[in-house]
Every structure is written in C-alpha cells, then in structure tokens.
Fold this sequence. Notes:
The structure holds two protein chains of two kinds. By secondary structure, chain A is α+β, with helices and mostly antiparallel strands. Chain A has helices at 33-45, 99-107, 126-131, 139-142, 175-178, 182-186, 223-235, 250-260, 289-305, 319-346, 361-368, 373-377, 402-421, 437-443, 446-459; strands at 4-5, 26-28, 50-53, 69-72, 79-85, 88-94, 113-114, 149-155, 161-165, 195-205, 209-217, 241-249, 278-286, 313-316, 353-358, 381-387, 392-398, 425-426.
Amino acid sequence: MEIFQISDKYIDYNKDxxxxxxxxxxxxxxxxxxxxxxxxxxxxxxxxxxxAQGSRTGLVGAGVGLVSHxxxxxxxxxxxxxxxxxxxxxxxxxxxxTLGQLREHIKNINENVDFLPNPTEETATFGGLFSHNAKxxxxxxxxxxxxxxxxxxxxxxxxxxxTISCDExxxxxxxxxxxxxxxxxxxxxxGQLGLILELDVILRKTPSNRWGVMFFFNRxxxxxxxxxxxxxxxxxxxxxxxxxxxxxxxxxxxxVGEWKKTSSKLKSxxxxxxxxxxxxxxxxxxxxxxxxxxxxxxxxxxxxxxGGAESDTWAGVLPSELEKFQHFRHAVQxxxxxxxxNAKNIDSSIFKLSMDFKLQDSMLEDIINRNVEIxxxxxxxxxxxGHIGENHLQLNLLPNNVDEFQHxxxxxxxxxxxxxxxxxxxxxxxxxGKTRINCLNxxxxxxxxxxxxxxxxxxxxxxxxxx
Amino acid sequence: xxxxxxxxxxxxxxxxxxxxxxxxxxxxxxxxVINPYDLFAVEMALRIRxxxxxxxxxxxxxxxxxxKVLIDSVAMGVDGGYLVSDLAFAGADVFATAKxxxxxxxxxxxxxxxxxxxxxxxxxxxxxxxALATHMNICGLPFVNEVVEIDEKNITASCDFGKHNAITxxxxxxxxxxxxxxxxxxxxxLRGKLSAKKAVFPVISLDDLFDKNNNNYGLSxxxxxxxxxxNTVFETSNNIIKEGGLExxxxxxxxxxxxxx
Lengths: 467, 261
Ligand SMILES: Cc1cc2nc3c(=O)[nH]c(=O)nc-3n(C[C@H](O)[C@H](O)[C@@H](O)COP(=O)(O)OP(=O)(O)OC[C@H]3O[C@@H](n4cnc5c(N)ncnc54)[C@H](O)[C@@H]3O)c2cc1C
Ligand SMILES: Cc1cc2nc3c(=O)[nH]c(=O)nc-3n(C[C@H](O)[C@H](O)[C@H](O)COP(=O)(O)OP(=O)(O)OC[C@H]3O[C@@H](n4cnc5c(N)ncnc54)[C@H](O)[C@@H]3O)c2cc1C
C-alpha cells in the first residue's frame, strides 16, 4: 500500500477540466480491488475522507478532493474479460479503463458491435463515466452510460464489496429510490455512494445504416420550427430512429472555428461561413437505408422552404465521415475549456461555469432566439449547445476576469432559478460537482434535496466519500 | 471549361495484400475508399468551375467496385463520371495506367484541363499525371498548390518543388496534379450525397478506345513489373555526445537554417 503526499509532483490531481482547484493532502494509485480495500480501511480508520478520481476530464470538479485523501483509479486500467452473449458482448473492465482503451479493444472483437452511448472524451475512465452517467451525442436513442452497464462491483462505506447487477431493485425506502434499480441510483452519484471497482460493459450491435447531417442556419428564428418539424416527422416513423439531434449557437460555431486553427483532429473539416447564426446536427439510423433517404429528403425540403440553402448542409455516411462530426462536437468542449484556461492564466481563481438545462418549449425558444433577459443584460460572453431534440441545452459562461467571473456565477444561479420557475430542471448532465453546488439550494425543490440526503445517509452514513 | 478529374480507389488501410506472383495489389472493394489526395483534385476542379464556369467529370480506372469513388465525387459536386473498366486493363503500371486514362479521356473528348491527385496511398508513384500529359501530348504541371490564373486559353499555377515554388504558365489543354495545400476538400451536401447514390456512370471498355490493341494495356502493356515487396526497417540510435555538445548542436542548427536537414 502506497500513499503519497500531494506535493508539486501530484499537484495536477487537485484539479480537473473545469479548472476547479481542490485541496487533498494525500493520494494513492491502487491497481487491484484488494489494494483499494486496504487503502480504504486505512483511510477510514484514520478518520479521513476519500475522493474517488478517474481521469479528471470531469467538467464540474466532482473528482477533485476538497480535503484528506484522493484515490486515483488511473492505474486500475485492465480489461479483464470478454464474453459473447448472442449478438452482444460483455467486457469486464477495471474502473480506471478508459473509453479509448475499450475502443481499441473493440476493434479486435467484432466490427459490428460498439459501446453505443459514445461520450466524446476518450481519456475518461469507466468509473468516471458511470459516476456521471455520461452521455454521448446520441443519448436521444441510447441514453446514458448506465444503460449499457450489466453490473458494477462496488465497495460501500461499511467495507462490503458487492456486485450489483442491472436488474437489482433498490432496497431503500426513499421516494427517489423506490422506482429505481440500484444501477440507476448509483449511476450519476458522483462518487458519493461508494468506490467503483469493476464494471461489466455491454457492447451492442451497431445500426446497419446511419446518416449524419449538419444544417447551418442564417437565421436563428428558424431553428425551433425546424426542430419541431423533424421531431414530428420522425416520431411516427417506426422505420427510422433519430439518434442525435444537437444544436450549436453562433458563439459555439465561432469557438470551434477558432479551435480548428490549431487542432489536428479538425484539420479535415473545412471552414464555414462566419455569418452562420447556428447549426443543427442530426443522425438518423435504420435497418433500411432507403427509409433514411426518404426522411432526409423531406427534412431538406423543409430546411430549404425555411430559407436554408442546400449548399449549407454537410452529410456523411461512412464511419470516417461521421467521425468528423464527432470531432466537431468534441471541439466544442475543448475550445470552451481552452477559453477558460486563458482566463485562468490571468486569475487562478476562475473556473468553468456551465449548466445543463432541461427546458420547457417556450424557454427553449427564448434561449435560442436570444430572448432571455438575464442573458441579454449580461456583459459576460456565453455559448449554448446541446441535445435540442430533448430540449436539453448546456449554457457555458466565458468570463475574462475575476469581476466577470463573480458576475457569471450570479447569472448561472439566476438562470437556474428562472428555468425552474418556467417548469424546467437543471444539471441533468455532467453532474453537480463542486462548481455547481452553490446553485443547488436555489434551484431544485427541497424534497429532491432531502431525498438525495437520505440516499447518501443510507449508503455513506459517516460521509466518507467525496465530501 | 470542361474539366476531367482522375480519381482512384485505394484500400482504406494498409492491411491489403500484394499478389506475390504478379506484384500487383489484391483489391477488395469492400474496404476501399477514394484516394485521399484525389479529394483535393476534386476540390480544385470544383473551385475552378466556380471561378470560370463549366463542367467537371470524374474518371476512374478500376474494377466495378471503383464506381464508389465516382459516387463520392458526384456527392462533392462533380457533374458526372466514367468508369474505365475492362479485364484488359488489369495489372497496369504507371505507363499503362496513364495510357488507358488518356485514351478514355480522349474518347469522351473536349476537355480543357485534366486534374490528378499528387499521388496515391497504394501505388504511391506520383507519376501518373505527368505520364498522362505525355501520352496526351499536352503540357503537364506537377504538384500544383495554387492556380494563380486560368482562362479558356492558359493556366498559370504555382508548383511545389520542395524548397521552391515555380509559377508556370502553360497553354490549355493541360494536365495538372494538385497538392494538399491547394484547399481543403468540401464535405458533401445532403442533396449531393443523396443524388450521387442514384447517379449512373457510363463504362468505358477496350472496345470504346481508339487504340484497341490489348497488348498496350494492363499487365502486358506495362513497362515495369514489381519483383519483390518487403518492409523496410528503420533503425534509430541514440548518440550520447559527451564532449563538444554545444558545437554539435550549433552545427545542426545551422544545417536546419540552411534547409539541409
Ligand atoms: C507497392 C507497389 C509498387 C509499385 N511499383 C511500381 C513501379 O515501380 N512502377 C510502375 O510503373 N508501377 C508500379 N506500381 C503500380 C502502379 O503504382 C499502379 O499500378 C499505377 O496505377 C500507378 O498508380 P499510382 O497509384 O502510383 O498513381 P500516382 O501516380 O501515385 O497517382 C497520381 C494520380 O493519378 C491518378 N490516378 C492514378 N491511378 C488512377 C486510376 N487507376 N484511375 C484514375 N486515376 C488514377 C489519380 O489522380 C492519382 O492521384 C506499383 C504498385 C504497388 C502497389
Ligand atoms: C473535451 C471534453 C469532452 C467531453 N465530452 C463529454 C460528453 O460527450 N459527454 C459527457 O457526459 N461528458 C463529457 N465530458 C465530461 C467528462 O469526460 C465526463 O464527465 C466523464 O464522465 C468524467 O470521467 P473521468 O474519468 O475523467 O472522471 P473524473 O472527472 O476524474 O471524476 C468524475 C466523477 O466520477 C467519480 N469517480 C471516478 N472514478 C470513480 C470510481 N472508481 N468510483 C467512484 N467514483 C468515481 C469522481 O468522484 C467524480 O465524482 C467531456 C469532457 C471534456 C474535457
């Protein structure tokens, strides 16, 4: 068992991609379940706290320890077993295995299966992905990572190591937990309920045909109508599935445009006109390619009828073509994070301020049409992107200095409150972590918070994990 | 202006095998893609069409599966394409490939400009464009990174010769091969992609060509044959310089500055 002091050598383990800085004093890098148990017992008996950490690609500081001990799972990085079950495969991984590692592994298994939820950050670990229930662009069809996990081996705060399978019902009497399975409860719990040791990841058959299309808009006012049209058109069509439906506002397009200048991954993406006001990207899947083509033809007609130009679309079918659109989406986060890093270089107390909103229709329209007073009045720059198909957008603020940073915090809190008042919900994706915790009390109802507290108390009475 | 653009189908990865006997590539249509360099050729053709008007047609010499690269070209915006395909064309080297393409382009006729990619990712000789110009007995400009001027009579282009660019003017018709610096290939539009799948491509076979002697095509018309294919092993060594390290580095630095390294 090795435990290290966090000095200069390990200082980076006290921050993540949100640029939030923590203050853990010690760190360990277990390589096996037994080592995790040993270190856990030692830390627990010393009366200290433990923050579980994956690859620190999190965007809300959830894996950054505020106090005591950080347990990094980056060396628990072995793929343990692969079994085939009908058309599917189950891959047993240690929780520090990264998405990129699994992708490489899949290449040697079978080219017709994949880990379908597909979040974009390849260096994220399965422990982290599960703990945030991370989602890819295609969450509309495939949901979050948890929908593709067969079982989880976890160390609870009482020292028990248990393997929880995906159909296991939750035994605690809390209205939050009553209707859920254990996996649903643990997924997205941000390292609060236990230490994840291993996961059985499900690989499923990839769709036979998939088309991806980007539509660039010259006018924002047309976006919501277009979105409603596409949703209505495809809702009743049983032959095709809309798996991705993403929105990028103008500032997002600008950020990717800027990031493109230096990113080798984006080098095959051509420049697009700076006049574009926004873009929508959708992916449609089907066993019958003709059905996709018919649907896309209708969507294109609508786009043109609303003043869009056919030449302002990009289409792809082959994996190498669709990959470009994936890279584009990934660049949104990378470009945004890099902008925050620039501000942090000026003042180190600045970190990423972003929030996910599940929006009612009217609020969605207001945000897209830039009609929200809170944002109109704001002097802080921001960008908005996300799963428009599910009315689920992410707002990111880009403060340039400390004053703007303080202001940005208020904007975020105000937006949360405003969204709740308008019937929406907040932070559905990417977690609450430490950067969003201040907004929590203002914005979700008390019953919800009480329920979360009950669950935490049930699993981690002594508040050992991630405090 | 009527432009021909030459596009070749190549394996999507380097796992394809060579036929040990014939020294030619064993092609598998399933895992083949358009030669990445040819996307730049298509892009250049489309940009010239946007500049001066006209039509662009893609030509590919290959098996039936090579139709896929014509579909890709039409998806990007070219007006049509020709599949140059006949058993007699199989196993062609640079000389025979250029001969076949020149015959096919002449058969369709009326072209002012022929555009090729800089090289392919399989054969990789980078010689077809100039061989094509020779067969057609017209001017050839290799490795063009910019078309400076073009009208019905002439083309002025900047050619990349490593350390130097040569700006050259030549009369049309001409053949050029284009470099990756000449402009990023566009992503196909939705309508382009949808309509390309329905496009029909005429097949040009030996019977259509002016020279019908099959000894001038394919393996029998080739001037070269591949004797052996083998992997090269690059050995690197770490030299530890114990004395005079600074002078050594200065020397290297000067070489880099002069462009010798
Ligand atoms: C490993 C290997 C070694 C070889 N060595 C030799 C050799 O030493 N000598 C020799 O003569 N041949 C050789 N060949 C064969 C030769 O490469 C090809 O048969 C011949 O087509 C030349 O094409 P290239 O791929 O080199 O084209 P390049 O000259 O690299 O291609 C330039 C451009 O020409 C156009 N073009 C080329 N082929 C086609 C096509 N089929 N259809 C349409 N457009 C096309 C494209 O625009 C392309 O970008 C070799 C092949 C292999 C696989
Ligand atoms: C460029 C970029 C793109 C991104 N794209 C996406 C995206 O498309 N979709 C998406 O959802 N997210 C995305 N993210 C966010 C991030 O990748 C995810 O939140 C991911 O789930 C974090 O994984 P991690 O291994 O880095 O975890 P960390 O950031 O280290 O930790 C995240 C949480 O997991 C907990 N945790 C980690 N390991 C364990 C364990 N073994 N046991 C218990 N708890 C554990 C931590 O305590 C913490 O609460 C992106 C981030 C970046 C930088």
